[in-house]
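User: Hey, my collaborator sent me this sequence without any context and asked if I could get a structure. I don't really work with proteins. Can you help?
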Amino acid sequence: MVPIVKISNLDKYFGRLHVLKNISLEVPPRQVVCLIGRSGSGKSTLLRCINFLEEPSRGSIEVDGIHVSGGEKGKEHRRLIHEVRLKTGMVFQEFNLFPHMTVLENVIEGPVIVKGMDKAKAIEIAKMNLDRVDMLWKKDEYPMRLSGGQKQRVAIARALTMEPKVMLFDEPTSALDPELIGEVLNVMKKVAQEGMTMIVVTHEMGFAREVADRVLVMGEGELIEDAKPSDLFTNPKDPRTKALIDRYRSEEQ
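Assistant: No problem. I've predicted the 3D structure and written it out in structure-token form, which is a compact way to encode the shape of the chain:
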């Protein structure tokens, strides 16, 4: 099967700091991949390189047939990055909703402004996606009147309304109160079950065990393990992975 995401020999430097080290990775369509690792291991940087929120220093990214080499410049490079971003939906830790816009206005902003979609069609797709995340009933509310979990569900609907090929989630529950985490994870499970390709940076080991097809472990800027959840959580091969899993288990108790 042709991968929908292909990362080849990726390096990322911040000044002299070597943050990502020769990362290569392929993700086939409809697969859910969870990225786990200690803070500072490079998980979020890798995710942000996929849609060029961070420019890779070396190597290449390919999303749904659009191939972009890192570290280049110029008009054609910017055009290719734009094409990649149209194919990737991104959900951040901090929601990033526009406070002066209603829920519905937030969700249609990207399709109308970035894709040039007809407003009536954008509203139709937005309502469908708000319904998918059980937020259609809040379409005329402003973000300040929503809980953190509701804001994140709107953010997921906003990303889905761009009709991406791949959804990227950067620790989407880390800014939520514990009682709100479940509602967001349930929406993510639903999106996964519907067949969306997903790459998720997360600390939620239960989600990774239950929903992921693969779990990747990062350490010091490298991919140190890549396995099915059933294998990774019962028989981790790298001692750093074992230490990570043991720590999460102790926190859950």
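In plain terms: The mean pLDDT is 94. You can pass these tokens on to your collaborator as they are.
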